[in-house]
Amino acid sequence: MTVQESFEPDILGFLCNWCSYASADLAGVSRLQYPPNLRIIRVMCSARVDPTIVFEAFIRGVDGVMVLGCHLGTCHYMTGNYYTERRMKTTKRVLKRVGLSPERLLVDWVSAAEGERFATLIREFTEKVRKLGPLGNETKLEPQKLKTRLASAKETLTQQRIRWLVGRERELVEDKNVFGEKVSQEEFDQLMLQTIEKEFAKRRILLSIKEDALSVKEIAQRVEASPREVLGNLVSLERDGLVSVVGIEGKSPKYRVAGG
Amino acid sequence: MRVGVFICHCGTNIGGYLDVPQLARYALSLPNVVFSQDNLYTCSEAGLTAIKKAIAENKLNRVVVASCTPRTHESLFRSTCREAGLNPYLFQFVNIRDQCSWVHMQERERANEKAKALIRMGVARAVLLEPEEEIEVEVNPWALVIGGGIAGMTCALSLANRGFEVKLVEKESRLGGTLNSLYKLYPTHEEASRLVQARTEEVKKNQKIEVLTSSKVKEVRGFIGNYDVTVRQGEKDRLFKAGVIVVATGAETFKPMGIYGYDGKTVVTQLELEQMLKEGRLDADTVVMIQCVGSRDEKRVYCSKVCCPTALKNAMLIKEANPNAQIFVLYRDIVTQGTTYEDYYRKAREVGITFLKYSLERPPVVGNESVKVYDELLGEELTLPYDLVVLSTPMVANPDARDLAQILKVPVDENGFFLEAHVKLRPIDFATDGIYLCGCAHWPTNVGESLSEAYGAASRASIPLSAGHVTTEPIIAVVDEDQCSGCSLCELTCPFKAIQVEATPKGRKAKVIAASCKGCGACGAGCPEKAITMRHFTDEQILAQVIPLAEVIS
Question: How high is the ipTM of this complex?
Answer without folding.
Answer: 0.94
